Structures are given as C-alpha cells and as structure tokens.
Amino acid sequence: MLKTLIAKRLMLASAAGLMMAVPAQAQLESAMSTAKASTAASAASQSRVEDSDDAADSAAREYRAVLQQKDNIALFVAQQDIYLQSQKSEIQSLQRQLGTVESIKQGMAPMMLRMTAQLEDAINADLPFNINERKARIENVKSILSDPDVSPAEQYRRVLNAYKIEVSYGQGIDSYEGAHPTRPGNVVNFIRFGRTSLVYVSKDESEVAKYNAETGEWDVLGGADALDMRQAIRIARGEAAPGIVYAPVTIRN
Description:
Blueprint: H1 2-125, H2 131-145, H3 152-168, E1 173-179, E2 187-193, E3 197-202, E4 208-212, E5 217-220, H4 223-236
Antiparallel strand pairs: 1-2, 2-3, 3-4, 4-5
C-alpha cells in the first residue's frame, strides 16, 4: 500500500515537471523564431540599403551622362551657328556676284567678237602656212559665238584656245606637204621657221622659194639654200638629229 502511494507521488511529480518543461521549450523555440525573423529582417533591410546605394550610384552616373550629353549638344549647336553664319556670308557674296553676271555677259560678247576679228586679221596678214586649217578654226569660233546654246564660258574657252594655237606656231620649226602656191596640181614640201620664214621645196628639189611678206610673192632661192632646206625638213620631221639650221629671211629697210 505504501509502495503504491509512493509510486503515484512519483508519477505526479514527473507529470508536474513535464508540464513545467513544456512551456520552457515553447518559450525557447519562440525566442529562436524571433531571432531568426530578426536576422532575416536585418538581412532584408541590408539588401534594401545596398539596392538603394546601387540605385543612387546608377542615378548619379546617369545624371553625369546627361550633363555630358547636354554639353556636347551645346557645343554642336554652337558649331552649327558658326557654320550657318559662314553659309549666310557665302550666300550673300554669291548673290552679289550673281547681280553682276548679266553685266559681265553683256561685256564679254563684244569683247570675244573683237578678239576673234583681230585674230582673223592677224592670220590674213601672217605667213600663209596651214592657211586652210587656220581659217577653218576661225570660222568655227565665229559659229560658236553666234550660237545662243553655247555658254559664255565655253565661247571664251574656244576663243582662247584659238589664240593659244596661233601663239604656238611662233615656236620651233615645222614641215608639211601641201599644194604648190602657184600650181595647185603639184605637191611640195613646206618648211616653216616659227613666224620668221616660210619656204617650199619641190619634190625633185629643183625649185626652192620663200614667201615675201612685203610683196605677197614667192622669191626663188639659190642651190645652196636648197641643201639647207633639205636638212631643215629632215630635222623638222625627226629624220635627222637636231642641229643648227639657217632660215632665209628678208631684210627690211
């Protein structure tokens, strides 16, 4: 009986102790849960802080980029203003020039006609070398000057080109075949010494004559001149090495 009583008391004590232990365990677990939640909250807060810092850095970088872009745009606008001012000045200059184009055209037309007429007179008064070719060139220039579809610039270029060709005739010597001056059915060799002298030699070299600019006639030359003219013709045609040649000239009093 006594043993039974003791056993019951021990069981009651154990139950009481167990009942006291359960609330303590629950409190421990609750504390641990609170600690874990606090740690998680702290981590989340730290993450938000770091994200905020990153966002702030990104915003700062974007702001600096926008400022740089603003400066670049301002510089570009300033450069464009300078360019536009330059263009305006150039346009004004062109407008002033265009205002004088018509008057220049009006002055060029008679000037080119005078130049052509003077060149034609010079050809007619010159030694009669390549005369058909030179007169044909003058007629071509006249035709161009009378064509309204040809620009004044092109007309002026043609006139100057004719002058340049005539100037070139005064340099060096030249030899070519042509019709006999008084007997067109015969072919002779002409030799031109710049604009100083013009001579023809018959094919058999039996006849040598030079043009007399004063009389407009052909003066017959002697046999010694024929030898000189033969050598001059060979040099002019590139058939002999360059050398000294003597041009028969007329001494004017």
